[in-house]
Every structure is written in structure tokens, then in C-alpha cells.
Amino acid sequence: MNDRKENQRERYLRGAKKFEQKREHLAQKKRRAASRERGSELDWPDSARGRVVRVVEVLRTEVRVRDGDVERAALVAPSARGAGGLAVGDEVALTGDFDDPTATLRVTERGPRRTALVRRRPGHGAATKVLAVNVDLGLVVLAPRREGLSLGFLERAVAALTAGGIEPRIVVTKVDLQDAVRRAQLDDALAPWTRQGHVVARVSAVTGEGIADLRAALAGRVSVLLGHSGVGKSTLVNALDPAAGQFVGAVRQADGRGRHTTTSARLIPFVAGGGLVDTPGVRQLVPDGVEVAALAAGLPDLAPYLGRCRFQDCTHGLEPGCAVLEAAASDGRVAQALRRLQRLIDSIEAE
Fold this sequence. Notes:
By secondary structure, the protein is an alpha/beta fold. It has helices at residues 2-38, 78-81, 151-163, 180-195, 211-218, 233-240, 292-297, 323-328, 332-350; strands at residues 51-58, 63-67, 70-76, 91-95, 106-110, 116-120, 128-133, 137-142, 167-172, 200-202, 222-226, 266-269, 275-278. Helices cover 33% and strands 20% of the residues. The strands form 3 sheets. The chain has a 6-stranded mixed β-sheet with strand order 10-9-8-11-13-12, sandwiched between helices. It has a 5-stranded mixed barrel with strand order 1-2-3-5-4.
């Protein structure tokens, strides 16, 4: 009996130590993220030098910028290369005659960023990649496959978008391929997100279902597309605005998955105003600088219990008085969501 109590005590102490280590690790990540953000913006005086335009594509030695209907290449001055570099959506100041097609343009300054979609670089430690900035909406594009929707990707995408100040929207493509039974299954899978208030658009580029409503929701706003390869992002862009002219690849017959057709992020302006940042297919999306609270908020099954724990900074691991742990003991869906949360935390810590 005493041996069993001693073993329980040792397990508790090991768990408590692991919890404290995890808490400190996340606190350090938060401090590093805040430091990177403070140092990421260049000076942007009230009267910026040169002409202010928006970056639509970042290439190896230059960027593509757009002013109205005119798009040009511009070199990047050393002063604008540091502090995180440039990303699609950045507002930049130029020197050079923009209206002279023979003139050499140079980016001299970068403006402040309202929003930013940032992810970790898999296998590169704490290194990050900024996918897009100054966007209003984030469209998480999902396509029904044999194994169902990629809900794990959805959770990560919502966390990354929310952390960057971007409103997430869920878009389910290829619904013309789904019968009534399959559509009901998809609705059931997404029900936790709709109950939480997330907007879900069901679209088909073949039949046009849902396209007009989605186009109206995006009008005059800049959005970014996130999704695995083959979910139909480029096809969706073409359906929303045929003038976009995105290249579309065929789907592999072996597994029903698509091929990469977008090789770099690019802001595609819409004729009616606004535009979309089409990003390359993301195989692994690990958010950066996201606190446990934000990660947990991205899992709808945990939402009813968040904010009810004894400790305000609860990580829903081993803390006493954790409302999420208590709910998981009697609710299988909460327990499953909690396991997904812990896997997501571990994946971030492992990078």
C-alpha cells in the first residue's frame, strides 16, 4: 500500500515538473514572439519618402509591386531587407519614377502591418515564414476526401489566423461531388465550428453553387487562401474572378489529391476591388507565437469550458481545478479535442 502511494507521489511530482517546464517554455516563446514583433517594423514617417504601393509577390532578388492597374518590379534597398524582410501585402515606399517603365525602382521603407499570417518553418527550429500581411479575411479551404475533412489542419489554420488578427472563414469546395448523405456528414463534422459562430461557405466551381455569395462577402477586402494541395484554391480564385487567370492542375487518380499549381504566395487583385493572396499548398501548418488559450479557442469542443479553470493561464495539462480536464473525464468529444490540443502544443514545442 505504501509502495503504491509512493509511486503515485513520484508520478505526480514528475508531472508537476513537466507542467512547470511547459509553462516556462511557452512563456519564453511568448517573449521571443513579442520581441520579434517589436523589431519587425521599419520606420514609417507621416510623410514616407517616395511613392507608397503594395507588394503583390516576393521573389528572390526583387519584389513585384502594384499601384492601381500597374504592376512593376522593384529592387529592395538594404534598409528594407532586415527586420523580417518583406511579405505579400506589405505597403512600401519607393524611389524612382513609377510611371517610367524604363526606370529602376527601389523599395526604401516598409509600413506597419495591421495583420500577419505567420507559420513555423518545419524542421528549422524557431524560424518562421510570413505568408501574408495586411489582409482582412483568411479563407481555410477544405475539400472532402475519402478520409473526410482535414479538421486538424482547420484547427491549426484558425489558430494561426486568429493570432495574426485575421478573421477566419471556412470554405468547403467540390460540394457538387457530394450526395445528400455525404453533405449531411460534412455538416455534422463542421457543426462545432458553426455553433461557435464561424462562417462556413459551401462552394462548387463546376455548378457555381455558393460562388456568388462568397464573392459578395469578399468584395472590397483582401483575403488569404490556406489549404492543402489539391483542395481547389486556384480553381476557386478563377471562379471568383475569371480575370485572375490562375493555372489549374489535374487531380491524381490514385488518391484523388491535387498537384501543386501555386509555387509562391501572390496577391491577385479583383476587378471589382479587393483581392486574394493565393498561397502554395501547405503540407504542415504550425502556428507561431500562439498561446495555449488561442490554440484551445480554435477547438470548438473546448470552448464551453475555457475561462472556467482555477488558473487563468491554465494549459489544460496537469493543473488542479482545470474545467477542461474535468469535462474530458465524462465527455468523449472533449477528451478527443483535448488530445488534439496537447498534440498541437507538443508539435510547436518540438520545432
